[in-house]
Amino acid sequence: MSALLNYKREGQGTPVVLIHGLFGDLNNLGVLARELKQDHDVISVDLRNHGRSFHSNDHDYALMASDIITLLEDLNVERPIIIGHSMGGKVAMKLCDFDYPIEKLVVMDMSPVKYTIRRHDNVLAGLNAVCQQTPKTRVDAMAVMSEHIEIEGVRQFLGKSLYNAGEHMEWRFNLKGLEKNYWNILDWQPISKTDTPVLFLKGADSDYLQVDHQAQVQQQFAQVKVHIVANTGHWLHAEKPNEVLRAIRKFI
Q1: What are the transmembrane regions (predicted)?
Q2: Can 192 be counted among the known catalytic residues?
Protein backbone atom coordinates (compact mmCIF):
# COMPACT_ATOMS: atom_id res chain seq x y z
CA MET A 1 0.00 0.00 0.00
CA SER A 2 1.71 3.20 -1.14
CA ALA A 3 -1.07 5.66 -0.32
CA LEU A 4 0.04 8.63 1.75
CA LEU A 5 -1.32 9.06 5.25
CA ASN A 6 -3.68 11.91 5.97
CA TYR A 7 -1.87 14.63 7.92
CA LYS A 8 -2.02 18.21 9.18
CA ARG A 9 1.05 20.48 9.08
CA GLU A 10 1.38 23.67 11.14
CA GLY A 11 4.13 26.07 12.20
CA GLN A 12 7.80 26.43 11.27
CA GLY A 13 11.09 25.26 12.73
CA THR A 14 12.51 21.86 13.64
CA PRO A 15 10.05 19.19 12.46
CA VAL A 16 7.99 17.38 15.11
CA VAL A 17 5.79 14.40 14.16
CA LEU A 18 2.82 13.54 16.42
CA ILE A 19 1.45 9.98 16.34
CA HIS A 20 -1.85 9.07 18.05
CA GLY A 21 -2.90 5.79 19.65
CA LEU A 22 -5.47 3.06 18.97
CA PHE A 23 -8.94 4.28 17.87
CA GLY A 24 -7.63 7.86 17.74
CA ASP A 25 -6.80 10.37 15.03
CA LEU A 26 -4.52 13.33 14.38
CA ASN A 27 -6.55 15.58 16.69
CA ASN A 28 -5.78 13.47 19.78
CA LEU A 29 -2.46 15.20 20.41
CA GLY A 30 -3.88 18.60 19.47
CA VAL A 31 -3.05 19.99 22.92
CA LEU A 32 0.63 19.36 22.11
CA ALA A 33 0.37 20.55 18.50
CA ARG A 34 -1.19 23.88 19.48
CA GLU A 35 1.73 24.72 21.76
CA LEU A 36 4.62 23.22 19.79
CA LYS A 37 3.59 24.80 16.46
CA GLN A 38 4.63 28.19 17.88
CA ASP A 39 8.26 27.31 17.17
CA HIS A 40 8.25 23.94 15.39
CA ASP A 41 7.07 22.48 12.08
CA VAL A 42 4.40 20.16 13.53
CA ILE A 43 3.09 17.26 11.44
CA SER A 44 0.12 15.40 12.97
CA VAL A 45 -0.77 12.13 11.21
CA ASP A 46 -3.70 9.74 10.95
CA LEU A 47 -2.24 6.22 11.08
CA ARG A 48 -3.52 3.62 8.61
CA ASN A 49 -7.03 2.39 9.51
CA HIS A 50 -7.63 5.60 11.50
CA GLY A 51 -9.07 9.05 10.87
CA ARG A 52 -9.07 9.96 7.19
CA SER A 53 -6.17 7.70 6.22
CA PHE A 54 -6.60 4.60 4.06
CA HIS A 55 -8.07 1.33 5.35
CA SER A 56 -6.14 -1.92 5.02
CA ASN A 57 -6.52 -5.51 6.21
CA ASP A 58 -2.87 -5.38 7.30
CA HIS A 59 -1.87 -3.58 10.48
CA ASP A 60 1.44 -4.00 12.30
CA TYR A 61 4.25 -1.79 13.55
CA ALA A 62 6.64 -2.31 10.64
CA LEU A 63 3.87 -1.29 8.20
CA MET A 64 2.80 1.73 10.26
CA ALA A 65 6.40 2.93 10.61
CA SER A 66 6.93 2.45 6.88
CA ASP A 67 3.80 4.55 6.19
CA ILE A 68 5.22 7.38 8.31
CA ILE A 69 8.57 7.29 6.50
CA THR A 70 6.86 7.31 3.09
CA LEU A 71 4.98 10.46 4.15
CA LEU A 72 8.04 12.20 5.64
CA GLU A 73 10.11 11.48 2.53
CA ASP A 74 7.30 12.86 0.36
CA LEU A 75 7.29 16.03 2.51
CA ASN A 76 11.12 16.27 2.47
CA VAL A 77 11.25 16.19 6.27
CA GLU A 78 14.74 15.68 7.69
CA ARG A 79 15.77 14.57 11.21
CA PRO A 80 12.37 14.98 12.87
CA ILE A 81 11.56 14.70 16.55
CA ILE A 82 8.94 11.93 16.89
CA ILE A 83 6.30 11.99 19.65
CA GLY A 84 3.93 9.04 19.98
CA HIS A 85 1.27 8.06 22.50
CA SER A 86 0.32 4.45 23.30
CA MET A 87 0.17 2.49 20.01
CA GLY A 88 1.70 5.59 18.40
CA GLY A 89 4.58 5.28 20.87
CA LYS A 90 5.32 1.81 19.53
CA VAL A 91 5.19 3.16 15.96
CA ALA A 92 7.66 5.88 17.02
CA MET A 93 10.06 3.30 18.46
CA LYS A 94 9.75 1.03 15.41
CA LEU A 95 10.93 3.92 13.20
CA CYS A 96 14.40 3.38 14.71
CA ASP A 97 14.61 0.05 12.84
CA PHE A 98 14.54 1.89 9.50
CA ASP A 99 17.40 3.67 7.78
CA TYR A 100 15.87 7.07 8.42
CA PRO A 101 17.59 9.59 10.72
CA ILE A 102 15.53 10.67 13.73
CA GLU A 103 16.64 13.47 16.05
CA LYS A 104 14.87 12.34 19.23
CA LEU A 105 11.93 10.23 20.39
CA VAL A 106 9.29 10.95 23.00
CA VAL A 107 7.23 7.87 23.93
CA MET A 108 4.12 8.56 26.02
CA ASP A 109 3.00 5.74 28.30
CA MET A 110 4.13 2.75 26.28
CA SER A 111 6.94 0.18 26.52
CA PRO A 112 8.85 -1.64 23.76
CA VAL A 113 7.40 -4.96 24.93
CA LYS A 114 4.73 -7.46 23.96
CA TYR A 115 1.57 -7.11 26.05
CA THR A 116 -0.44 -10.24 26.77
CA ILE A 117 -3.54 -8.80 28.46
CA ARG A 118 -6.55 -7.81 26.34
CA ARG A 119 -7.57 -4.40 27.69
CA HIS A 120 -10.09 -3.42 25.05
CA ASP A 121 -12.75 -6.16 25.03
CA ASN A 122 -15.42 -3.87 26.53
CA VAL A 123 -14.43 -1.13 24.08
CA LEU A 124 -14.66 -3.52 21.13
CA ALA A 125 -18.06 -4.71 22.37
CA GLY A 126 -19.30 -1.09 22.49
CA LEU A 127 -17.88 -0.24 19.06
CA ASN A 128 -19.42 -3.33 17.49
CA ALA A 129 -22.77 -2.64 19.17
CA VAL A 130 -22.85 0.76 17.42
CA CYS A 131 -22.27 -1.00 14.08
CA GLN A 132 -25.00 -3.54 14.76
CA GLN A 133 -27.64 -1.10 16.05
CA THR A 134 -26.97 1.59 13.39
CA PRO A 135 -27.93 4.59 15.59
CA LYS A 136 -29.11 7.64 13.65
CA THR A 137 -27.62 10.30 15.95
CA ARG A 138 -24.46 10.81 17.98
CA VAL A 139 -26.52 10.87 21.20
CA ASP A 140 -27.99 7.46 20.35
CA ALA A 141 -24.55 6.07 19.50
CA MET A 142 -23.15 7.28 22.82
CA ALA A 143 -26.06 5.62 24.63
CA VAL A 144 -25.36 2.31 22.86
CA MET A 145 -21.69 2.51 23.90
CA SER A 146 -22.61 3.24 27.52
CA GLU A 147 -24.09 -0.26 27.81
CA HIS A 148 -20.56 -1.68 27.38
CA ILE A 149 -18.09 1.09 28.28
CA GLU A 150 -18.39 2.44 31.83
CA ILE A 151 -15.92 5.31 31.73
CA GLU A 152 -17.43 8.42 30.19
CA GLY A 153 -14.03 9.82 29.21
CA VAL A 154 -13.38 6.72 27.09
CA ARG A 155 -16.79 7.05 25.41
CA GLN A 156 -16.14 10.74 24.69
CA PHE A 157 -12.74 9.90 23.17
CA LEU A 158 -14.22 7.18 20.95
CA GLY A 159 -17.16 9.40 20.01
CA LYS A 160 -14.77 11.78 18.26
CA SER A 161 -14.42 9.15 15.52
CA LEU A 162 -18.16 8.96 14.82
CA TYR A 163 -19.53 10.54 11.67
CA ASN A 164 -22.89 10.71 9.95
CA ALA A 165 -22.77 8.34 6.97
CA GLY A 166 -26.18 9.52 5.68
CA GLU A 167 -28.64 7.06 7.19
CA HIS A 168 -26.78 6.34 10.43
CA MET A 169 -23.60 6.96 12.42
CA GLU A 170 -20.41 5.08 11.51
CA TRP A 171 -16.80 4.85 12.68
CA ARG A 172 -14.03 6.57 10.76
CA PHE A 173 -11.53 3.94 11.86
CA ASN A 174 -11.49 0.47 10.31
CA LEU A 175 -13.03 -1.46 13.20
CA LYS A 176 -13.00 -4.86 11.47
CA GLY A 177 -9.38 -4.48 10.41
CA LEU A 178 -8.23 -3.32 13.85
CA GLU A 179 -10.12 -6.08 15.64
CA LYS A 180 -8.65 -8.68 13.29
CA ASN A 181 -5.13 -7.35 13.99
CA TYR A 182 -5.60 -6.82 17.74
CA TRP A 183 -2.82 -9.26 18.73
CA ASN A 184 -0.46 -7.50 16.29
CA ILE A 185 -1.22 -4.26 18.15
CA LEU A 186 -0.33 -5.86 21.50
CA ASP A 187 2.73 -7.53 19.97
CA TRP A 188 6.28 -6.21 19.69
CA GLN A 189 9.34 -7.36 17.76
CA PRO A 190 12.39 -5.85 19.52
CA ILE A 191 14.31 -3.25 17.52
CA SER A 192 18.09 -3.27 17.05
CA LYS A 193 19.75 -1.21 19.78
CA THR A 194 19.70 2.46 18.79
CA ASP A 195 21.59 5.56 19.90
CA THR A 196 18.54 7.75 19.20
CA PRO A 197 17.83 9.58 22.49
CA VAL A 198 14.41 8.65 23.91
CA LEU A 199 12.27 10.15 26.65
CA PHE A 200 9.67 7.83 28.18
CA LEU A 201 6.79 9.76 29.78
CA LYS A 202 4.86 7.57 32.19
CA GLY A 203 1.47 8.26 33.73
CA ALA A 204 2.08 7.45 37.41
CA ASP A 205 -1.24 5.59 37.76
CA SER A 206 -0.90 3.67 34.48
CA ASP A 207 0.52 0.15 34.21
CA TYR A 208 1.63 0.23 30.57
CA LEU A 209 5.23 1.21 31.45
CA GLN A 210 6.48 -0.96 34.31
CA VAL A 211 9.69 -1.33 36.30
CA ASP A 212 10.14 -4.88 35.03
CA HIS A 213 10.24 -3.55 31.44
CA GLN A 214 13.52 -1.77 32.24
CA ALA A 215 15.79 -4.54 30.91
CA GLN A 216 13.94 -4.65 27.58
CA VAL A 217 14.08 -0.86 27.29
CA GLN A 218 17.84 -0.87 27.87
CA GLN A 219 18.39 -3.69 25.38
CA GLN A 220 16.81 -1.53 22.66
CA PHE A 221 17.80 2.04 23.61
CA ALA A 222 21.27 3.29 24.58
CA GLN A 223 20.17 6.79 25.65
CA VAL A 224 17.06 6.72 27.87
CA LYS A 225 15.38 9.25 30.12
CA VAL A 226 12.18 8.59 32.08
CA HIS A 227 9.80 11.21 33.46
CA ILE A 228 6.84 10.20 35.63
CA VAL A 229 3.82 12.49 35.54
CA ALA A 230 2.12 12.32 38.94
CA ASN A 231 -1.63 11.72 39.36
CA THR A 232 -2.19 10.73 35.74
CA GLY A 233 -3.21 7.56 33.95
CA HIS A 234 -2.65 6.46 30.38
CA TRP A 235 -3.99 9.78 28.98
CA LEU A 236 -1.32 11.88 30.69
CA HIS A 237 -1.23 14.56 27.95
CA ALA A 238 -4.98 15.16 28.36
CA GLU A 239 -4.85 15.11 32.17
CA LYS A 240 -1.68 17.19 32.73
CA PRO A 241 -0.88 18.91 29.41
CA ASN A 242 1.30 21.63 30.93
CA GLU A 243 3.55 19.22 32.79
CA VAL A 244 3.82 16.93 29.75
CA LEU A 245 4.74 19.90 27.53
CA ARG A 246 7.35 21.11 30.05
CA ALA A 247 8.98 17.67 30.08
CA ILE A 248 8.92 17.46 26.27
CA ARG A 249 10.37 20.96 25.84
CA LYS A 250 13.15 20.29 28.36
CA PHE A 251 14.07 17.13 26.46
CA ILE A 252 13.93 18.53 22.92
Answers
A1: none
A2: no
